[in-house]
Specification:
The complex is a heterodimer. Chain A is mainly alpha-helical. In chain A, 55% of the residues lie in helices and 9% in strands. Chain B has one domain. The chains are: A mainly alpha, B mainly alpha.
């Protein structure tokens, strides 16, 4: 299976909702560093964290994350 | 999921942990070198006080080394400081440290087996503390680097 890369719209959606990284981190229960690294594509979140992010942003997971073509 | 620690506190605590780890790593390296130099000095100036200083330094070295390993590997502090990202960083750091430690052991073994150097108990002690330092310092520095990288731009 070829290596998959993950695209994410986390920063864009967070900005749309007017949330800071710290506020989103507090909602999800992770550190601000974690949000920062997910946004920058440095860290690929677990399924649980992806679902928590989606719930916090009131979006579907696939609206936030998608496999890179 | 809310948590009681503010983002500012969390950043400060994370930074403090990183600084502590780097400082401990430096202490381990300094003590390693101090032991190596002191052993040479003790051989020249053989005296009871010198031996006591050396024994004390060795004791502090092992305490600092074990504390450093525990500091990097252990889940200390509030849960927010041990979230998914930090756990991943810890895992990477320990994995790299493990391979570096094994490589250091293999190199030390090859060096001893080569028979090209006079090898006594003192040299064995030096080798042991050097390998132990590598096993403790490398994961610590990798962990500190990964945490710093995650903080940047946050």
């Amino acid at each position: 299976m070829p290596e998959a890369h993950l695209n994410n719209r986390l920063k864009e959606i967070r900005a749309e909702l007017g949330l800071t990284q710290a506020e989103l981190a507090a909602r999800v229960g992770v550190s601000r560093k974690t949000i920062n690294t997910v946004e920058n594509g440095v860290f690929v979140p677990s399924t649980i964290l992806a679902l928590r992010l989606a719930a916090a942003l009131k979006r579907k997971v696939e609206d936030i994350f998608a496999l890179k073509e | 999921m809310a948590h009681s620690i503010s983002s500012l506190d969390e950043d400060q605590m994370s930074r403090k942990r990183r600084y502590t780890i780097v400082m401990l790593a430096v202490v381990v390296i300094v003590l390693n070198n101090t032991i190596q130099i002191s052993t040479e000095a003790a051989a020249v100036f053989a005296s009871a006080p010198m031996q006591r200083v050396l024994t004390g330094t060795e004791l502090v070295f092992w305490i600092a080394t074990l504390y450093l390993v525990w500091f990097v590997a252990g889940r200390r502090g509030p849960a927010i400081l041990n979230d998914e990202l930090t756990t991943a960083h810890r895992s990477v750091a320990l994995r790299i440290g493990y391979w570096c430690f094994l490589a250091a052991v293999a190199l030390a073994y090859a060096w001893v087996r080569s028979g090209r150097h006079a090898f006594g108990i003192v040299q064995f002690e030096h080798l042991l503390i050097t390998v132990a330092s590598i096993g403790a310092v490398i994961p610590a520095m990798v962990f500190a680097f990964l945490e710093r990288r995650a903080e940047q731009g946050a």
